[in-house]
Structures are given as structure tokens and as C-alpha cells.
Amino acid sequence: MAYDNDSDVIRRARLSILAALSGFAVIMVVGTIGYKQLGEADNSWLDAFYMTFLMVATIGYGNGIEVFHHHNTELFTMLIAFSGIGIMTYLFSSVTALVLASDLDLTMRRRRMEKMIRDMKGHYILCGFGRVGFNVAQELGSTHRQHIAIDENHDVLMANIEKCPSLVYLHGDAADEDVLTKANIDNARGLFAITGDDSRNLMITVTARQMNAKVRIVARCNDMRNVEKLRRAGADAIVSPNFTGGMRIASAMIRPNVVSFLDEMLRSEQRLRVEEVAVPEGFPPTPVADLGLSAEDYLLVAVRTRNDWKFNPPAGFIVEAGFAVIAMASPHGRLELERKLADRARAANRT
Which residue, 21, 45, 135, 190, could crosslink 216 as a Cys pair with Cβ 3.0–4.6 Å? Predict the structure, then answer.
């Protein structure tokens, strides 16, 4: 998402305020020096500064440096007062413009996001945007997958927007049907129920499953005793950060080279991942050798058939519609693989 036009308005308003404050400072310096030179010998620098402030702030003349019947001082005072009126008017108008621009910017962002969400298809919905949700969003973003974040805590959303200005988000309860409707759950590919509360994740799972029977749901579970409840509620996969973290810690000790390989794969410039690409409907039975999977951006690892796995499939292995191709790929490689399979399916349907 891009909000350059709205941000430009705010930037211009901020620059106007800085310009007004700079002008105020210049007038204060000039006025202080002028009144010190035009005043009596016993007038101090503080007296001159005080007199200048009275004129610039348009408070009016009071006790201070003697002005009446001193023509040079009177002319100088009129000049300072006129400048003060102009600079203060400009400052107040700039502050008003900033407030209005900020409100307009927020309104425009909300409307643009609502339009983007309505147009989304095959996106992912993140219900809960704490530390776990933020990391999930980072992974989805780095692999070029559209996603929407939902959280009840407005402060959490605003804090993460500062880190990720392009974030598409909704403020509300993800267990509320109206909020999920706004998130376009009917066209979503997947939903993450990843708040820090198992009962909340359970409610989100139930609601989402009732609204879209086909959407894939991955739920977070902190207490392993709740795994079966989440599964019965409709979650396709349940992940326990505590269990997964323990397994990762153990793996770092007993199989350090494997962990190092996986870490390097995630950190590499190619952003390699083990990706899953579904073979589309209408795809003709095709041997692996004829798929043309020789691109540098992906490496075939396995094929998931309807009932089994085939690891490192030979060239003669037949790939059919409904299978899933597992490949080590970059985001570009995954998109290229999806395109090749889709093109072959379309070509088969035309014939």
C-alpha cells in the first residue's frame, strides 16, 4: 500500500510549523537586539526580550521599555507587532492544517484499506497481532502473500504500523462475525487464530469455520490440553509455541548443522523456503521429467499424492491434479512454479 499523497500533506504541514517557529525565533532575536539598542541605558537584555515577546505574542504594551514619544522605537515596535501578528497567524493556521491533515490521512487510509480488503482473494487473516502475529506477518510479507491483521488492542496495531507502514489491518474482535466479514473471509485462503488466549483462539476458530467451511485455519495453543478442543472446533493445524520452541532448542544441541542450514536458508538473499504448490484441477497426468522444473529458483523435494508421500520422485513419476508439489524455492520460484502448473492445466482444458 502507498499513502504518499496523504503523507505529503502532513509533511508540508509540519514544514510550515517549523518555518513559523523559525520565523518566531528570528523576530525574537531581532526584536531583543533592537530594543536593547533603542532603549535606555538601564534597560537589560531581559527587558528587551520581554518587550519583544509582548509585541510578537500580541499581548499588548505594558510596563517595559519606554516607547511613547520616541519615534524610532515607535516605528520599530509597529514593525515587530505587525511581524508578530503575521507569524502567529501563520503558526496557528499551520497547526490547524496539521490536525486536519492527520484526520484526513487516517480517513483516507481506512477507506483505501477497506477497498483493498474487498478486492482481496486468496489472502490470509491474522487474528491477534502481538509478537507471534507480527512474525507471521513478516513471513507472509517476505514471501509475497497478501494478509490482513486484526487485533482488539489499538495501541498494538499502531505500534506495529510504525514498523510496517504498509500493513493492512482491522481494529476489532476477530471472534465477531462482522469483523471477519470486513476481512473478506469468504475469499480468504487461510486464517491464523494466534492470540495469547486459548479460549479466544477457540472462539475465533468456531466463528471462522461456521462462516467459511473451506478456509484453512491454523490455531495457536499455549496449553497442550486444549489441542483436541481446537481440533474439534475446526482448526486444521494447531501449533504450540512452547512445544515448538522446546523442539528447536533440543535440535540446536543435537543436530546443529541442520538448524544452521535452516537458519541460513531463511536469512539468504533468495529467501528460500520449503514451499507447497497445489496441482490445479484440469492438470493432465504428467511425468516429473516433463514438468520443466529445472529453474534455479526452485528444487523439487517431494510430491504429496492423495494418500501418500513420494520423496525425491524419479523422472517417470506421474503428477496429477489434486497432488501437492513440495519444493525448496524463493518467492519468485514459487510463483514461477504455480504459473507453469496453471499454464499446463489451461492448455489441457483448451484441447
Answer: 190
The number of CA neighbours under 13 Å toward the Cβ of 193 is 35
Q: Are 65 and 48 in contact (CB under 8 A)?
A: yes
Pick the CATH number of 121-245 from 3.90.320.10, 3.40.50.720, 3.30.420.10, 3.40.50.1100: 3.40.50.720
User: Distance (Å, rounded) from C-alpha 140 to C-alpha 128?
Assistant: 15
Distance from C-alpha of 147 to C-alpha of 22, rounded to nearest angstrom? 44
- How far apart CA 137 and CA 125 sit, in angstroms, is 10
Provide the pLDDT for residue 71: 59
Are the C-beta atoms of 94 and 20 separated by less than 8 Å? yes
Q: Read off the pLDDT of residues 303-339 as tens digits, 9 standing for 90 and up.
A: 999 888 989 888 889 999 989 999 888 888 888 888 8
> Above 60 in pLDDT, residue 1?
no
Look up residue 157 and give its three cell numbers: 496495531
Q: Domain ranges for the chain, please list them.
A: 4-115, 121-245, 271-350
**pLDDT at residue 5 above 60?**
no
Q: Give percent above pLDDT 90 in the chain.
A: 26
Classified as helix, coil or strand, 177 is: helix
What cell numbers appear for 271 in the block? 529467501
* pLDDT per residue as tens digits for the range 241-258: 888 888 888 988 998 888
Mean pLDDT (the chain) is 82
Of all helices (H) and strands (E), which one includes residue 125?
Answer: strand 124-127
Give the homologous superfamily in CATH for domain 271-350. Answer: Regulator of K+ conductance, C-terminal domain (3.30.70.1450)
More confident residue, 139 or 42: 139
> Residue 276: which of 217, 216, 328 has the closest Cα?
328
DSSP secondary structure string for all residues of 107-168: HHHHHHHHHHHHH--S-EEEE--SHHHHHHHHHHHHTT--EEEEES-HHHHHHHHHH-TT--
Q: Which residues are paired to 216 by β-bridges? A: 190
Task: In whole angstroms, give the CA distance from residue 316 to residue 207.
Answer: 45
